[in-house]
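Exercise 7. Predict the structure of Sensor-like histidine kinase SenX3 from Collinsella aerofaciens.
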Amino acid sequence: MSFGKFFKDALLPVAVWTCGVLLSCFVLTVAGASTSIVVVAVGVSFIFGMLGIVVEYARRRRFLRQLERAAEELESPAWVQEMVQCPTYAEGELEYEVLRRVGKAACDEVAEGRRQTDDYRDYIESWVHEAKLPLAAAHLILENLDGSEDDLSRVDDLGRELARVERYIDQALYYARSEVVERDYLIRRWSLKALVTGAIKANTRELIAAHVAPVCENLDFEVFTDEKWLEFILGQLIQNSIKYACEDGAKIVFSGALLDEGLASERIELTVADNGCGVSAADLPRVFEKGFTGDNGRTTKRATGIGLYLVARLCSKMGIDVTAASDSGEGFVVTFAFSTNKFQYFE
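Solution. The predicted structure, encoded as C-alpha coordinates:
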Protein backbone atom coordinates (compact mmCIF):
# COMPACT_ATOMS: atom_id res chain seq x y z
CA MET A 1 0.00 0.00 0.00
CA SER A 2 1.36 3.44 -0.96
CA PHE A 3 1.70 6.26 1.58
CA GLY A 4 -0.82 8.33 -0.37
CA LYS A 5 -3.47 5.63 -0.08
CA PHE A 6 -2.66 5.14 3.60
CA PHE A 7 -2.90 8.91 4.23
CA LYS A 8 -6.23 9.01 2.40
CA ASP A 9 -7.58 6.29 4.69
CA ALA A 10 -6.33 8.32 7.70
CA LEU A 11 -8.13 11.56 6.71
CA LEU A 12 -10.73 11.28 9.47
CA PRO A 13 -8.14 11.09 12.31
CA VAL A 14 -6.17 13.89 10.60
CA ALA A 15 -9.31 16.03 10.46
CA VAL A 16 -9.92 15.46 14.19
CA TRP A 17 -6.29 16.30 14.92
CA THR A 18 -6.55 19.49 12.81
CA CYS A 19 -9.61 20.58 14.76
CA GLY A 20 -7.68 20.04 17.96
CA VAL A 21 -4.78 22.15 16.73
CA LEU A 22 -7.13 24.96 15.67
CA LEU A 23 -8.86 24.84 19.04
CA SER A 24 -5.49 25.06 20.78
CA CYS A 25 -4.57 28.10 18.66
CA PHE A 26 -7.83 29.76 19.62
CA VAL A 27 -7.25 29.12 23.31
CA LEU A 28 -3.69 30.48 23.13
CA THR A 29 -4.88 33.59 21.30
CA VAL A 30 -7.65 34.25 23.86
CA ALA A 31 -5.14 33.74 26.66
CA GLY A 32 -3.04 36.55 25.19
CA ALA A 33 -0.20 34.50 23.76
CA SER A 34 1.89 36.23 21.15
CA THR A 35 1.61 35.38 17.50
CA SER A 36 5.08 33.80 17.45
CA ILE A 37 4.15 31.43 20.27
CA VAL A 38 0.97 30.41 18.48
CA VAL A 39 2.93 29.78 15.25
CA VAL A 40 5.54 27.72 17.12
CA ALA A 41 2.80 25.68 18.82
CA VAL A 42 1.09 25.00 15.51
CA GLY A 43 4.40 24.05 13.87
CA VAL A 44 5.34 21.65 16.66
CA SER A 45 1.88 20.07 16.59
CA PHE A 46 2.08 19.68 12.81
CA ILE A 47 5.54 18.11 12.93
CA PHE A 48 4.67 15.60 15.61
CA GLY A 49 1.32 14.84 14.00
CA MET A 50 2.92 14.03 10.65
CA LEU A 51 5.67 12.10 12.40
CA GLY A 52 3.02 9.98 14.11
CA ILE A 53 1.35 9.23 10.76
CA VAL A 54 4.69 8.27 9.17
CA VAL A 55 5.59 6.03 12.12
CA GLU A 56 2.19 4.32 11.97
CA TYR A 57 2.56 3.79 8.21
CA ALA A 58 6.03 2.31 8.71
CA ARG A 59 4.63 -0.13 11.28
CA ARG A 60 1.89 -1.30 8.94
CA ARG A 61 3.73 -1.12 5.60
CA ARG A 62 5.52 -4.49 5.78
CA PHE A 63 2.38 -6.43 6.66
CA LEU A 64 0.27 -4.64 4.05
CA ARG A 65 2.84 -5.21 1.30
CA GLN A 66 3.04 -8.90 2.18
CA LEU A 67 -0.74 -9.11 1.85
CA GLU A 68 -0.63 -7.35 -1.54
CA ARG A 69 2.06 -9.69 -2.85
CA ALA A 70 0.17 -12.74 -1.60
CA ALA A 71 -3.03 -11.54 -3.28
CA GLU A 72 -1.19 -11.12 -6.61
CA GLU A 73 0.88 -14.32 -6.60
CA LEU A 74 -1.09 -16.97 -4.77
CA GLU A 75 -3.56 -19.16 -6.64
CA SER A 76 -5.16 -20.44 -3.43
CA PRO A 77 -6.04 -18.06 -0.56
CA ALA A 78 -5.52 -20.93 1.86
CA TRP A 79 -1.76 -20.26 1.75
CA VAL A 80 -1.84 -16.52 2.48
CA GLN A 81 -0.83 -17.02 6.10
CA GLU A 82 2.35 -18.81 4.97
CA MET A 83 3.54 -15.74 3.04
CA VAL A 84 3.04 -13.07 5.72
CA GLN A 85 4.66 -12.51 9.09
CA CYS A 86 2.74 -11.63 12.22
CA PRO A 87 2.74 -7.79 12.62
CA THR A 88 3.57 -6.00 15.86
CA TYR A 89 0.43 -3.86 16.27
CA ALA A 90 -2.81 -5.08 17.85
CA GLU A 91 -5.09 -4.70 14.81
CA GLY A 92 -2.60 -6.52 12.58
CA GLU A 93 -2.22 -9.36 15.08
CA LEU A 94 -5.99 -9.85 15.02
CA GLU A 95 -6.02 -9.83 11.19
CA TYR A 96 -3.15 -12.32 11.12
CA GLU A 97 -4.99 -14.65 13.49
CA VAL A 98 -8.09 -14.48 11.31
CA LEU A 99 -5.99 -15.33 8.23
CA ARG A 100 -4.40 -18.24 10.06
CA ARG A 101 -7.75 -19.71 11.07
CA VAL A 102 -9.27 -19.21 7.61
CA GLY A 103 -6.24 -20.83 5.96
CA LYS A 104 -6.33 -23.78 8.35
CA ALA A 105 -10.06 -24.28 7.77
CA ALA A 106 -9.56 -24.15 3.97
CA CYS A 107 -6.68 -26.64 4.09
CA ASP A 108 -8.72 -28.97 6.32
CA GLU A 109 -11.62 -28.83 3.84
CA VAL A 110 -9.30 -29.56 0.90
CA ALA A 111 -7.72 -32.48 2.77
CA GLU A 112 -11.15 -33.88 3.66
CA GLY A 113 -12.31 -33.52 0.04
CA ARG A 114 -9.24 -35.37 -1.20
CA ARG A 115 -9.76 -38.10 1.37
CA GLN A 116 -13.38 -38.56 0.30
CA THR A 117 -12.32 -38.63 -3.36
CA ASP A 118 -9.67 -41.27 -2.65
CA ASP A 119 -12.18 -43.34 -0.67
CA TYR A 120 -14.71 -43.11 -3.50
CA ARG A 121 -12.11 -44.11 -6.10
CA ASP A 122 -11.03 -47.07 -3.96
CA TYR A 123 -14.66 -48.10 -3.63
CA ILE A 124 -15.22 -47.90 -7.40
CA GLU A 125 -12.14 -50.03 -8.04
CA SER A 126 -13.28 -52.59 -5.47
CA TRP A 127 -16.81 -52.63 -6.93
CA VAL A 128 -15.48 -53.13 -10.45
CA HIS A 129 -13.40 -56.13 -9.42
CA GLU A 130 -16.34 -57.66 -7.55
CA ALA A 131 -18.75 -57.06 -10.46
CA LYS A 132 -16.42 -58.75 -12.94
CA LEU A 133 -16.48 -62.06 -11.03
CA PRO A 134 -20.07 -63.06 -11.96
CA LEU A 135 -19.42 -61.91 -15.52
CA ALA A 136 -16.42 -64.21 -15.75
CA ALA A 137 -18.53 -67.05 -14.34
CA ALA A 138 -21.24 -66.35 -16.91
CA HIS A 139 -18.68 -66.50 -19.72
CA LEU A 140 -17.48 -69.91 -18.46
CA ILE A 141 -21.04 -71.19 -18.34
CA LEU A 142 -21.65 -70.03 -21.91
CA GLU A 143 -18.50 -71.69 -23.16
CA ASN A 144 -19.56 -75.03 -21.65
CA LEU A 145 -23.12 -75.02 -23.04
CA ASP A 146 -24.17 -77.44 -25.79
CA GLY A 147 -27.42 -77.13 -27.72
CA SER A 148 -29.21 -76.54 -30.95
CA GLU A 149 -28.20 -74.00 -33.54
CA ASP A 150 -30.82 -71.54 -32.28
CA ASP A 151 -29.62 -71.98 -28.72
CA LEU A 152 -26.05 -71.38 -29.82
CA SER A 153 -27.12 -68.20 -31.61
CA ARG A 154 -28.86 -66.93 -28.50
CA VAL A 155 -25.86 -67.88 -26.42
CA ASP A 156 -23.63 -65.91 -28.79
CA ASP A 157 -25.90 -62.88 -28.48
CA LEU A 158 -25.81 -63.20 -24.70
CA GLY A 159 -22.03 -63.46 -24.81
CA ARG A 160 -21.80 -60.20 -26.77
CA GLU A 161 -24.05 -58.44 -24.26
CA LEU A 162 -21.96 -59.75 -21.37
CA ALA A 163 -18.84 -58.50 -23.13
CA ARG A 164 -20.49 -55.09 -23.52
CA VAL A 165 -21.31 -54.96 -19.80
CA GLU A 166 -17.73 -55.93 -19.04
CA ARG A 167 -16.44 -53.09 -21.23
CA TYR A 168 -18.61 -50.58 -19.42
CA ILE A 169 -17.28 -51.89 -16.11
CA ASP A 170 -13.73 -51.56 -17.42
CA GLN A 171 -14.55 -48.02 -18.51
CA ALA A 172 -15.71 -47.19 -14.97
CA LEU A 173 -12.47 -48.63 -13.61
CA TYR A 174 -10.27 -46.63 -15.98
CA TYR A 175 -12.31 -43.50 -15.29
CA ALA A 176 -11.78 -43.93 -11.53
CA ARG A 177 -8.05 -44.42 -12.07
CA SER A 178 -7.64 -41.59 -14.58
CA GLU A 179 -6.87 -39.11 -11.77
CA VAL A 180 -3.87 -41.17 -10.65
CA VAL A 181 -2.62 -42.85 -13.82
CA GLU A 182 0.94 -42.72 -12.52
CA ARG A 183 -0.02 -45.20 -9.79
CA ASP A 184 -1.03 -47.90 -12.23
CA TYR A 185 1.02 -47.63 -15.41
CA LEU A 186 4.53 -48.45 -16.53
CA ILE A 187 6.14 -46.93 -19.62
CA ARG A 188 8.16 -49.42 -21.66
CA ARG A 189 9.14 -50.04 -25.27
CA TRP A 190 6.36 -51.98 -27.02
CA SER A 191 5.74 -53.23 -30.53
CA LEU A 192 3.06 -51.05 -32.10
CA LYS A 193 1.80 -53.98 -34.16
CA ALA A 194 1.44 -56.15 -31.04
CA LEU A 195 -0.52 -53.42 -29.24
CA VAL A 196 -2.92 -52.92 -32.14
CA THR A 197 -3.33 -56.67 -32.62
CA GLY A 198 -4.12 -57.09 -28.93
CA ALA A 199 -6.82 -54.42 -29.07
CA ILE A 200 -8.34 -56.02 -32.19
CA LYS A 201 -8.37 -59.49 -30.58
CA ALA A 202 -10.07 -58.11 -27.48
CA ASN A 203 -12.90 -56.79 -29.67
CA THR A 204 -13.03 -59.57 -32.28
CA ARG A 205 -16.52 -60.77 -31.41
CA GLU A 206 -18.05 -57.30 -31.78
CA LEU A 207 -16.13 -56.56 -34.98
CA ILE A 208 -17.41 -59.76 -36.58
CA ALA A 209 -20.98 -59.17 -35.45
CA ALA A 210 -20.94 -55.62 -36.86
CA HIS A 211 -19.16 -56.74 -40.08
CA VAL A 212 -16.34 -54.25 -39.52
CA ALA A 213 -13.04 -55.30 -41.06
CA PRO A 214 -9.83 -54.27 -39.26
CA VAL A 215 -6.92 -53.35 -41.53
CA CYS A 216 -3.30 -52.95 -40.33
CA GLU A 217 -0.76 -51.00 -42.39
CA ASN A 218 2.91 -50.22 -41.69
CA LEU A 219 2.92 -50.93 -37.94
CA ASP A 220 6.50 -52.22 -37.67
CA PHE A 221 7.52 -49.63 -35.07
CA GLU A 222 8.30 -49.61 -31.38
CA VAL A 223 6.77 -46.96 -29.12
CA PHE A 224 7.13 -45.95 -25.49
CA THR A 225 3.81 -46.47 -23.74
CA ASP A 226 1.87 -48.66 -21.31
CA GLU A 227 0.43 -51.79 -22.92
CA LYS A 228 -2.76 -52.04 -20.86
CA TRP A 229 -3.70 -48.38 -21.08
CA LEU A 230 -3.06 -48.09 -24.82
CA GLU A 231 -5.05 -51.23 -25.61
CA PHE A 232 -7.94 -49.76 -23.61
CA ILE A 233 -7.65 -46.50 -25.58
CA LEU A 234 -7.64 -48.34 -28.90
CA GLY A 235 -10.58 -50.42 -27.71
CA GLN A 236 -12.61 -47.24 -27.15
CA LEU A 237 -11.95 -46.19 -30.74
CA ILE A 238 -12.86 -49.63 -32.06
CA GLN A 239 -16.15 -49.57 -30.16
CA ASN A 240 -16.91 -46.09 -31.53
CA SER A 241 -16.23 -47.33 -35.06
CA ILE A 242 -18.56 -50.29 -34.50
CA LYS A 243 -21.26 -48.03 -33.08
CA TYR A 244 -21.19 -45.65 -36.05
CA ALA A 245 -20.23 -48.13 -38.80
CA CYS A 246 -21.78 -47.93 -42.25
CA GLU A 247 -23.94 -50.84 -43.42
CA ASP A 248 -21.72 -52.05 -46.26
CA GLY A 249 -17.95 -52.29 -46.47
CA ALA A 250 -17.29 -51.01 -42.94
CA LYS A 251 -13.65 -51.02 -41.95
CA ILE A 252 -11.23 -49.54 -39.46
CA VAL A 253 -7.66 -48.88 -40.58
CA PHE A 254 -4.64 -48.76 -38.27
CA SER A 255 -1.57 -47.23 -39.93
CA GLY A 256 1.80 -46.04 -38.62
CA ALA A 257 4.38 -43.55 -39.82
CA LEU A 258 7.70 -42.11 -38.67
CA LEU A 259 7.77 -38.30 -38.97
CA ASP A 260 10.54 -35.66 -38.62
CA GLU A 261 13.22 -38.35 -38.50
CA GLY A 262 16.46 -37.06 -37.01
CA LEU A 263 14.89 -33.88 -35.64
CA ALA A 264 14.01 -32.95 -32.07
CA SER A 265 10.33 -33.36 -33.00
CA GLU A 266 10.83 -36.92 -34.29
CA ARG A 267 7.75 -39.01 -33.51
CA ILE A 268 5.81 -42.10 -34.49
CA GLU A 269 2.21 -41.48 -35.44
CA LEU A 270 -0.53 -44.08 -35.23
CA THR A 271 -3.63 -43.21 -37.25
CA VAL A 272 -6.93 -44.94 -36.58
CA ALA A 273 -9.46 -44.23 -39.34
CA ASP A 274 -12.89 -45.64 -40.06
CA ASN A 275 -15.35 -45.05 -42.89
CA GLY A 276 -18.42 -44.55 -40.72
CA CYS A 277 -20.82 -41.63 -40.47
CA GLY A 278 -18.12 -39.19 -39.33
CA VAL A 279 -18.54 -36.03 -37.25
CA SER A 280 -19.82 -32.65 -38.37
CA ALA A 281 -17.47 -29.66 -38.50
CA ALA A 282 -19.43 -27.99 -35.68
CA ASP A 283 -19.05 -31.02 -33.37
CA LEU A 284 -15.42 -31.89 -34.17
CA PRO A 285 -13.73 -29.37 -31.76
CA ARG A 286 -15.71 -30.83 -28.86
CA VAL A 287 -15.39 -34.58 -29.40
CA PHE A 288 -12.94 -34.96 -26.51
CA GLU A 289 -15.11 -33.06 -24.03
CA LYS A 290 -16.65 -35.00 -21.17
CA GLY A 291 -20.26 -35.98 -21.85
CA PHE A 292 -20.38 -34.48 -25.35
CA THR A 293 -22.24 -36.71 -27.85
CA GLY A 294 -23.12 -34.30 -30.66
CA ASP A 295 -25.58 -34.98 -33.46
CA ASN A 296 -24.54 -38.62 -33.74
CA GLY A 297 -25.15 -39.14 -30.04
CA ARG A 298 -28.70 -37.89 -30.38
CA THR A 299 -29.25 -40.36 -33.20
CA THR A 300 -27.54 -43.27 -31.42
CA LYS A 301 -28.99 -43.43 -27.93
CA ARG A 302 -26.16 -45.61 -26.61
CA ALA A 303 -23.65 -42.76 -26.79
CA THR A 304 -22.35 -41.61 -23.39
CA GLY A 305 -19.69 -39.05 -24.30
CA ILE A 306 -17.18 -40.73 -21.98
CA GLY A 307 -15.10 -42.88 -24.34
CA LEU A 308 -13.26 -40.16 -26.27
CA TYR A 309 -12.99 -38.05 -23.10
CA LEU A 310 -11.09 -40.91 -21.46
CA VAL A 311 -8.96 -41.34 -24.58
CA ALA A 312 -7.84 -37.70 -24.44
CA ARG A 313 -7.38 -37.74 -20.66
CA LEU A 314 -5.27 -40.89 -20.54
CA CYS A 315 -3.17 -39.77 -23.51
CA SER A 316 -2.49 -36.47 -21.75
CA LYS A 317 -1.39 -38.33 -18.61
CA MET A 318 0.99 -40.54 -20.61
CA GLY A 319 2.48 -37.78 -22.78
CA ILE A 320 0.82 -38.90 -26.02
CA ASP A 321 -0.50 -36.18 -28.34
CA VAL A 322 -3.93 -36.99 -29.74
CA THR A 323 -5.89 -35.19 -32.46
CA ALA A 324 -9.11 -35.88 -34.34
CA ALA A 325 -10.23 -35.13 -37.89
CA SER A 326 -13.46 -35.86 -39.71
CA ASP A 327 -15.95 -34.87 -42.36
CA SER A 328 -19.60 -35.64 -41.89
CA GLY A 329 -20.45 -38.83 -43.74
CA GLU A 330 -16.81 -39.61 -44.61
CA GLY A 331 -15.47 -41.32 -41.49
CA PHE A 332 -13.60 -40.38 -38.34
CA VAL A 333 -9.80 -40.24 -37.88
CA VAL A 334 -7.82 -40.14 -34.64
CA THR A 335 -4.04 -39.68 -34.67
CA PHE A 336 -1.69 -40.52 -31.79
CA ALA A 337 1.84 -39.10 -31.70
CA PHE A 338 4.46 -41.01 -29.68
CA SER A 339 7.69 -39.14 -29.08
CA THR A 340 10.81 -41.17 -29.79
CA ASN A 341 12.67 -39.30 -27.05
CA LYS A 342 12.48 -41.78 -24.19
CA PHE A 343 13.91 -39.26 -21.70
CA GLN A 344 10.51 -37.63 -21.40
CA TYR A 345 9.07 -40.85 -19.97
CA PHE A 346 9.56 -42.52 -16.61
CA GLU A 347 10.89 -46.05 -16.75
